[in-house]
Design goal:
187 residues, alpha/beta, Rossmann fold, 5 strands, 13% strand, binds BIS(adenosine)-5'-tetraphosphate
Length: 187
């Protein structure tokens, strides 16, 4: 199974990943987590990424691409059950780069799950979480960046026949059941 979780920041992508991993045995590639690990370790990459993350902007393409390219190539060899991308791609350039990498290793995507949640609900959720980049100004900017850069991917993956909508409101369990209903079709 090779899938992408698409949705605004706070739409619940990361929250659903543990259940998906437990049920389908896929490995997750979460660019936000990878970047936060680089920041915490104080690497050069982390130092470059941090100001962009603190402001709620996308980090530069070369940083993210280097991280996921290596990860995906290793994964394709080590986990036959497949992978799930969380937080990548986030703009058209990243989507095209992902297609190119997956073509090269002959591992095309099966599905893209789009989590639909309205923005006021998202602001409430993220203010409640309280991560370093979860203050109101940064959250609003992340939503603006989503609207401008990431939302065009809904159309991109619809045209490829890969997009499936998941209603992202309700309890974590209810959303998990909706995700499972879609993924069981391809498992
Ligand atoms: P991410 O780590 O991807 O941050 P996120 O979008 O906020 O996380 P996510 O959406 O997974 O959180 P979730 O909804 O599960 O990115 C952080 C930053 O890294 C970006 O701003 C950017 O700077 C950089 N970055 C990452 N990837 C990049 C890329 N590809 N290119 C460039 N830059 C990149 O959870 C949110 C909250 O909602 C939680 O508190 C959770 O408990 C709550 N929640 C979830 N489901 C709920 C439900 N059903 N009901 C109520 N609350 C719920």
């Amino acid at each position: 199974m090779r899938i992408v979780l698409l949705g605004a920041p706070g739409s619940g992508k990361g929250t659903q990943t543990d259940a998906i991993i437990a049920r389908y045995g896929v490995t997750t590639v979460a660019t936000g987590d990878l970047l936060r690990a680089e920041v915490a370790a104080g690497t050069e990459l982390g130092l470059r990424a941090k100001p962009h993350m603190d402001a709620g902007n996308l980090v530069p393409f070369d940083i993210v691409l280097g991280m996921i390219e290596h990860g995906l190539q290793t994964l394709a060899k080590t986990n036959p059950k497949g992978f799930m991308m969380d937080g990548f791609p986030r703009d058209l350039a990243q989507a095209e780069a992902l297609d190119e990498i997956l073509d090269r290793i002959s591992q095309p995507l099966d599905l893209v799950l789009f989590f639909e949640v309205d923005y006021e609900e998202i602001v409430k959720r993220l203010l409640g979480r309280g991560r370093a980049d979860d203050n109101e100004a940064t959250i609003r900017n992340r939503l603006r960046v989503f609207e401008e850069k990431t939302a065009p991917l809904i159309e991109y993956y619809t045209r490829k026949g890969l997009l499936r909508n998941i209603k992202g409101t309700g309890t974590v369990e209810e959303i998990g059941q909706r995700v499972q209903a879609v993924l069981d079709e391809i498992a």
